[in-house]
Design goal:
Blueprint lengths: L1 H15 L2 H8 L5 H9 L18 H13 L6 H13 L9 E8 L5 E6 L7 E6 L2 E6 L4 E4 L6 E5 L1 H6 L9 H30 L1 E2 L2 E2 L4 H24 L9 H4 L12 H26 L10 H13 L4 H13 L5 H9 L5
Parallel strand pairs: 1-3
Antiparallel strand pairs: 1-2, 2-6, 3-4, 5-6, 7-8
């Protein structure tokens, strides 16, 4: 089933989400047609329970779809939308027929609610915002938007009246943790795409009468890229698995509710740290292999590497998550064995 879903989405994205479509949406074009194709095919409801009309898939089952969102540089918050629609439907909250992003809100001195750097916010119609332990669904139209460094991200500020009137989730979602989970998979997918593009380029591009991939220095760079990509993918995939039986409640499951219930935050922290670390290194090596052409607007590599840099920072870079992992290791509430079992998927015999 997992492979069937991923294969179907891969075919759809190959047909409907090429580099020209991504460029057009980044430049201000409409994303409605792409969203409609994805939504009508049922992928947005993949995690919605079967009793509510969805496929009832787990995070593990749709992890391949989240990787595809990264591999194809999907200019919509598709991964977040899957989770949000499942949670809203389960609580009988009206689900908007638009992409839904995640936001982390804080109060401003003026009394408004502000969410900075919402990933995919520009193409989202609504945002699940968590502020002070409260998660609510806000429309992007009801807030004042500010562009961010990455074209598709958005900072939004809502008046208190919009927050007060917004539908509220019964159980608060840690949107930062949920965002870190999906971005780990998207980064892993983008890393794989960048590596494959670099490998193909090294075999095509010739210097001094032979492909540059024949030179040992380039081979070394490609080998390091492969290592980083596979290690990141492994960490991201493990993060989608349910926490091992008997894992300490201090590290097993807090802040991930509904469709993400049972996922270990410490695994998510490890995945986001590992994938973010790899994002920086692989992007640097890919551009070293490609040279100046890799930075040009017409060349597709930069579509992926810009996302690697943006996603690395969103929901916390590797240093932020390393800090959380360190606290878990030193916590008196957990043993080193707890941490090892959770982060490496080792099951006690």
């Amino acid at each position: 089933m997992d492979s069937m879903i991923s294969d179907a989405l891969a075919a759809l994205l190959a047909d409907r989400c090429g580099a020209d479509v991504v460029r057009a949406i980044e430049s201000g074009g409409s994303s409605t047609e792409l969203w409609r194709a994805i939504s009508e095919a049922g992928f947005a409801d993949a995690m919605v329970s079967e009793s509510k009309g969805g496929a009832g898939l787990s995070a593990e089952a749709v992890s391949g779809c989240w990787m595809l969102a990264g591999r194809h540089a999907v200019p919509l918050p598709l991964s977040e939308t899957m989770i949000a629609r499942a949670m809203l439907t389960e609580q009988s909250i009206t689900v908007p027929d638009t992409p839904i992003a995640f936001g982390i809100g804080h109060r401003t001195p003026a009394g408004t609610l502000r969410a900075v750097g919402i990933s995919g916010g520009r193409t989202a119609g609504a945002v699940l915002v968590t502020a002070a332990g409260d998660t609510r669904l806000l429309t992007t139209a009801s807030g004042r938007g500010e562009r961010c460094a990455f074209e598709l991200d958005l900072t939004l500020e809502w008046p208190e009246s919009a927050w007060a009137a917004a539908p509220r989730l019964a159980a608060s979602l840690d949107t930062r943790l949920a965002q870190a989970l999906v971005l780990s998979l998207q980064i892993a997918g983008a890393l794989d795409a960048v590596f494959r593009r670099s490998l193909a380029w090294a075999n095509e591009r010739e210097q001094f009468g032979k492909p540059i991939g024949k030179f040992q220095a380039i081979q070394h760079q490609l080998a390091l890229m492969a290592e980083e990509s596979f290690a990141a993918t492994m960490a991201a995939r493990i993060a989608c698995l349910p926490a091992p039986d008997g894992a300490s409640s201090a590290t097993a499951s807090t802040g991930l509710v509904g469709a993400l219930d049972g996922i270990a935050p410490l695994r998510v922290a490890t995945a986001k740290a590992r994938t973010s670390e790899a994002a920086l290194q692989v992007a640097q090596m890919a551009h070293a292999v490609h040279g100046a052409i890799g930075f040009t607007h017409e060349f597709d590599l930069q579509i992926l590497t810009r996302r690697l840099h943006a996603w690395r920072q969103t929901a916390g870079s590797e240093s932020a998550w390393h800090d959380q992992i360190g606290h878990a290791l030193l916590s008196p509430k957990t043993t080193s064995l707890d941490v090892l079992r959770i982060t490496t998927d080792v099951v006690a015999g």
